[in-house]
# Entry
Amino acid sequence: MKTYRVVAERHDKWWLLEVPEIPGTFSQVRRLDQVDEWIRDAISLMLEIPEDSFNIDLDVRLPKDELAELRAVKAAQKAVTQAQEESSTRTKSLVAKLKDEGLTVRDIGTVLGVSYQRVSQLSA
# Structure
């Protein structure tokens, strides 16, 4: 399925939308959650194709400072996700080791600061 890149740039209270691959294909919306509906309509009209016959790749253009901050936020979110995955893996491993040592799920829960039901889930 064909994918069209849609460039969205903020001007005053509007997002101006352009599809560079299709000259003359423009639209505007107040909010980014409206992009899909409006730009699909514009592309469909320009190319005379069904609205569900292509994909949209939204390229939101932000000012340089905000773009740098967005990249930093996304990097931090990725680091948090990786830390959560590592914590989960290590916690499951520790639960298994403590069970092998003969600790009860209630004792393991107390040690880890979680409920015994959570320990049971982690050891399943």
